[in-house]
Every structure is written in structure tokens, then in C-alpha cells.
Amino acid sequence: MAGKVELRRATLRNTMISKAETRITANGLKNLRARDLAKDAGCALGAIYNVFGDLNDLVLAVNARTFKRLGTAVADSLADAPQNATQQLIVMSHGYHRFAAENFNTWRALFDIERAPGQAAPDWYLNEMGQLFAYIDAPLSVIFPEHTAEDRALLTKALFSSVHGIVLLGLDEASAGVPAAQLDEMISLTLSHLASKS
Amino acid sequence: MAGKVELRRATLRNTMISKAETRITANGLKNLRARDLAKDAGCALGAIYNVFGDLNDLVLAVNARTFKRLGTAVADSLADAPQNATQQLIVMSHGYHRFAAENFNTWRALFDIERAPGQAAPDWYLNEMGQLFAYIDAPLSVIFPEHTAEDRALLTKALFSSVHGIVLLGLDEASAGVPAAQLDEMISLTLSHLASKS
């Protein structure tokens, strides 16, 4: 049975995650300071490190929420997609683009978080990523029935990374001169070529 | 005729760029501090701002050097490439991967530099990017002779962004679970699919 102390701790944990989410949404991961969060949550600075160990772990908790929302957004976009496998890939990728554009700072935090060299991603992260990959794998297995599961897994990751790259450089217009308005067209063009067969 | 003052200023400028390049190479853009650079260059802190306006402009000067080296690396990889257009795209992309892996911190600085919202990239950056795009456009015009120049320009940017995304997430292994050892294979797989025609 959870005692009062555990309950208060769980409440404080949720408060901190929400406050950190609000700060990241408004100002980006780069400007997140423990001092500000303690003030937002009405607690001592030390309480954050008491609950989360370090600020990175708190950001990971925010990222877990973002990832869930991203998964939902991609699944929702699929609901209206035509029964054509290539079109499904395109619709999901446009959904990814839309999510990134509408949640720019929290989306960037998914990838900009610091990791010690060689440190693996946490299990929940790999699970959420695996779910996203499953959405991509399904249409790919229709388009390329001759591929082995291993080849398809590699293509799935390559495809995700490709769309991520297009969205990333596209949303940072100055980076590659990619006009944001043409982003969806670029995604469609790339995926149509990718899914066409020789 | 350049006087002594101009000459000294130009020398100091080059020294600062080299010192900043060394620091970025060793510790990444994130850990670059004006204070350290002034010490490295044996000058007052104010001298940096006197020559460069701000630290960002100094990083841009480092990035200009990196971009030149990147262009050379991609061009060099093409020299040994087979006369097959798809293979040329693959060879260049592998060259891009190799450059990114061997120059990780300076390569990241190309994309991680801060820009004020809406601020365009400087002309030299767009010129270097244009040169890279020209390398990609050539084989694409062989593979897709029916495409308009406009379509091809969009596909070129999409292709660059795709390979960039694969390399970026691949070199940050924790991000997408992409095994670094299979990066080149992923690139080959993606580009082979992309270049195949229905």
C-alpha cells in the first residue's frame, strides 16, 4: 500500500514532468534550467535531483510522453489512409511532418537529448520506436513481399531516418535551402520513387 | 595596400578560426567558449568580438572550411565511382557517411549552429550546398531523364536530406537503434530502391 510519502513523491514527479514539458515546449530543451523548474514546481532545487537523479532523466520522462503522442498521431493519420501501401507510407510520413511542425521543441528534444557515449536508449524508448517501426513495416511487406524480414527491418529504419532527415532539414529552412511548403511534396516524391519497383 | 594593422587583424582572424576548429573537433560546438579561445589565441576576450562580431560568426567561418573539405571528400569519392548513375549516388552517400564519421564534431557544427528564426544561411553556405546538390543532380538526370529540372531539384534536396537523416540517426546509435555497421548497407538499399523505376 502506497503511503503518504510515496503519494506525495509521485505527485511531485508528475508536476515536474508537466512543468518541464511546458518549458521545453515554450523555449526548447537548450534553455531548460533546473532552477526554473524548481520555482515552477514550488519545490527546492534539490528535490528535482532527489526524484529524478539528474535533469536528463526528467527530460527522458518528458520524451516518453512526446513519443506516445507521436505514436498516436501517426496511428491516427493511418486511420484515414487509402488501402494502398505506398499511400499509407506517404500519409504516415506527412503525419510525422505535421507532428514535428506542431510540436517542434518537444520533437527536437527526442533527438537532442544528451547521452553518454555508448549509452543505450532506455527500454521504453526502444519500445515506442519499435511501435513506429511496426507501422512502417506493414506497408513495406506489401510492397516488397520478396524481402526477408531482416532486409525489411533495415529498410524500415532507413525509411524512417530518411523522412526524419527531410523533415529536420526542411523545418530548419536555412540548413539546406529546402522550402518548408514543399516538404510534403518532397516526402511524397521520395517515397513514390522508393516504393516503385524495377 | 594593406597596412600593418590590417595584416595583423587578418592573421589574428585565421588564428582564431584554427583554434576554434581545433576546439570544436575535440569537444564539439556545444562546449565552445570565447574565454578558452582567447586563451588559445593569446589575445584579450574582447579581441574575438572585435574581429568576428559574435561567436556564431566565428563558428560560421569554421563551418565554411568544413564545407569545403566535405565538398572535396564527396568529389574525391566520385573519382573512383563506376559509370553507373545509381552507383555514383551510392558512392557519394558513402563518402558523406565516411566524412561525417571521421569529422563528427565539425560535421555536427554545420547543422547545430544557432540561427535567429527566419535568418537565411549566408551566401557561401548556399554556394557550397549548391555545389553538393550539383553532384547529386548529375546522376539523377541520367536516372530520371523525364523529370523536369524543378522536380529534379526537389528530389536532389530530398535525397540529400534522406542520406543526412540516415547518417545522423545511424551515428547516434541510441536514437533509432540503427546499427552503425549497417549504415552503408542501409544507404545502398535506400538509393537502389529510389533509383529503380516502375
Automatic annotation (TrEMBL), chains A, B:
Keywords: DNA-binding, Transcription, Transcription regulation
Database matches in PROSITE patterns: HTH_TETR_2
Lineage: superkingdom: Bacteria
Signal peptide: none
The entry's DNA-binding region: 33-52
Keyword DNA-binding set for record: yes
Matching InterPro entries: Homeodomain-like_sf, HTH_TetR, MT1864/Rv1816-like_C, Tet_transcr_reg_TetR-rel_C_sf
Keyword check for Endoplasmic reticulum: no
Stored Gene3D superfamilies: Tetracycline Repressor, domain 2
Molecular-function GO terms, alphabetical: DNA binding
Domain called HTH tetR-type: residue spans: 10-70
Listed name of the protein: TetR family transcriptional regulator
Organism: Octadecabacter antarcticus 307
